[in-house]
Amino acid sequence: MSPFRLLIIVFFLSHLTNTLAQNSTEWQRDTLEFYVNKSNEAYDQYNYKDAIKYAATLIEKGHEYDYDYYEFLGYDILGGIYSETEDTIKGKIYSEKALELARATETDSLIAWGALNLGILYSENKQTYNKAIAYFKESIELNQKAQDYDEIYLTYINLIWTYLDNNQLDNAAHYIQKAEELSLQEVDSLDRLYMDLLQGKYYLAKKKYDAATQKLEKIASFANENENTDLAIEAYGDLSKLYSETDDYKKAFANLDQHNLYKQKAYTLKKLEETEKARAKYDLEQAHKELQSALKEQAYAEELISKSKSLTTVLIIAIVILVLALFGIITFFKTRKIYINRLMTKNKQLRLANEKAEKLSKVKTKFLSTVSHELRTPLYGVIGISTLLKEDQNLKAYADDLNSLKFSADYLLALINDVLLLSKMDAEAISLSKVPYELDTLIQNIVRSFEFTLHENSNKLHLHIDENIPNKLIGDPIRLSQVLINLMGNAIKFTENGNIWLSLVVVETTKNENTVVKFTIKDDGLGIPLHMQKEIFKEFTQIENKNHSYTGTGLGLTIVKKILDLYGSEIQLTSQPNEGAEFSFELTLEKQTEQHKAVSIFNGESNIPQGLKNGHTSHVLIVDDNKINQKVTQKTLEKHHIKSSLANDGVQAVAMCKSNAYDLILMDINMPNVNGMEATKMIRKFNKNIPIIALTAVELEEGTQEILNSGMDDVIHKPYNLPEFLKIIFKHLPKEEMDLSH
After folding, report:
1. Nearest CA among 399, 397, 405 for reference residue 381
2. What is the mean pLDDT of residues 479-507?
């Protein structure tokens, strides 16, 4: 509802006063007009306390002088005050009392005015808008008798607006027509503008966009020139809706911008007004109480006079209490302000600290990712060369040394992976995947990876897998492997000439056929003191191991605990010094169903093709800026009878692909000049079929999707696992040329 409609409640009071005062004596008229003016002045300044006081006096004097007109005005002002302060119930009570007095006078102008005010009050609620319509029509009928065209036109505005608010478009159109006929008479210019606005709203609702545009643009122009905020808000808002419905979004946005601009101005004024209203509302409540007290004092005047002493005492006590209460309130708000300021300061410091921590966390993660990449690149050479040398029959005499070399390199790689994994867990960047895998193959791979360390420490492994555990599962085999590898590695490290037990036992089968399995890793080694059994799960914490020169980093059990947290499981530890240790945890393993058609990442296929048909030798292009890594990859391929050529960067690789035919390209990612992904995109422009495999030290979780989106077919992570490396290579070589008989 427009603020224009609220102002009507107290409009024309001075005009009515002049009309009604003609029949009163001079001194009575001056007295009553004084209270009318004082009440209206206080009302305009939101000083409702004084406004009520003067209105109440006006009612009292009007009744005393037997002037129903002024008594009507007093109740009308009270109705406006309570309605303005959103006490609509009292507002309606006083406005209805005003209309009742108007009807008693049988004065049409007063009845019409009282009916209009009540119509405005009832139009605010959709449940009572029918009452509002009835009051508006009554007001129009009475003003037509008096030929008061301004009042009729004003009532038409409110009636039409009510019909539009309730989507009664046909009724609105009927009275718009009547208003147009009436506009031939002399009516207020501002009222004409509001009627134009209502016509624009009507045309917009009827989808008559040209007519609506004409009206609304006119109103918007006038409002803009004369800084009429209320008209501007309505007009620009409707224009924005109009242009949006006609798909002229540029104009829609421009008008919406103007709408918001004026709305902001109105909001600023409204905030000031609301502040005054809030203060005034408090005064209003106090004034209402004082009014009730005054009536009681008048009714019991004699009794109060007789008890004046006791009343004085009570008043003094009340004043003292009020002063103390006021002092308490002031003290409370001052203290509250101090604490709020302190809290705001602490919140600001906390926010800055949090932002700093987040920034440092990102820097740390980026640093670890970069360092891990730079470390993996030379490790690729170390692990690759040591693997090749181990398989060289001419170097059997150095087998132990080469095993130690490869073990050290593998340990360093595991350490790098542990640090990076822990960093990602702290940043909550790790989640569990769900892929198919086979449990027996996963366990066999883990056991095989510990063959060297078991032999080195003269330990014996005892493996037990409950036959009731399904073999084909769906879940995250990588994270499960990391848990078991860390726990088994910890057991082997602290045990010499002893036994290691790995046991998987069914605990229960759930309703959806999933299996709860208890994993137990036990050893008969050094054991863990009671005071250390909680500490060892903290980062970089480890117990002293006098039997080994290698003590590790103290990250393994921390990673185990954090991964099990992702599963919603807990690690249990039972241990005594020199009696070994037993770690156990429970996981719910999900059985594969028919919908899991994907190939398992642990599928047990360990046979690797050893050669190609005699009629063809595959030719692979190795693109890598690191000479050592080139040599490792080339030697590995040569051992499996695959010819290779070398390119030092992406530019050279693109040029060689244009002038030579290759069966496959192994493409490094981070290279000078042109990197691997850019080179791949350039090659794909003239050769879309050649398999291109990324050979990268970048974390797979960080860059796999971006690598594949560049046009590559697969990714091999450096340092690579040789069987996995060869499996991917032969997977992408032309299958009709492969000899799988070996």
Report:
1. 405
2. 89
Instruction: Determine the Cα–Cα distance for residues 422 and 556; give it in Å rounded to an integer.
Output: 10
The pLDDT, as a whole number, for residue 684 is: 93
Report d(CA 121, CA 113) in Å as an integer.
13
CA distance 120 to 99: 13
| Of residues 209 and 358, more confidently modeled | 209
Residue 552 or 108, more confident: 108
Q: Tokens 């990712």, residue?
A: 369
Please list the alpha-helical segments (H only) found in 300-398: 301-306, 308-390
> b/e for 320-342, b at 16 or more Cβ within 10 A?
eeeeeeeeeeeeeeeeeeeeeee
The rounded distance, in Å, linking the Cα atoms of 450 and 437 is 21
Contacts 24+ apart (CB under 8 A), 82-90: 82/284, 83/6, 83/9, 83/121, 84/6, 84/9, 84/48, 84/277, 85/48, 85/277, 85/280, 85/281, 85/284, 87/284, 88/121, 88/124
Q: How many CA atoms lie within 13 A of 350 on its CB side?
A: 6
DSSP 544: -
Task: Report the C-alpha gap between 310 and 678 in whole angstroms.
Answer: 98
DSSP structure string for 121-153 = HHTTSGGGHHHHHHHHHHHHHHHHHHT-HHHHH
Show the domains of the chain with their CATH numbers.
190-295 (1.25.40), 431-591 (3.30.565.10), 611-739 (3.40.50.2300)
| DSSP 3-state of 323 | helix
Burial letters 53-91, b for 16+ CB under 10 A, else e: bbbbbbbebbeebebbbbbbbbbbbbbbbbbbbebbebb
Assign 384 a pLDDT band (cuts: 50, 70, 90).
Answer: low
In the predicted model, what is the mean pLDDT of residues 28-52?
79
Q: What is the pLDDT of residues 695-735, one digit of tens each?
A: 887 655 556 778 888 899 988 877 767 777 888 898 898 86
E strand or H helix at 587, and its extent? Answer: strand 581-591
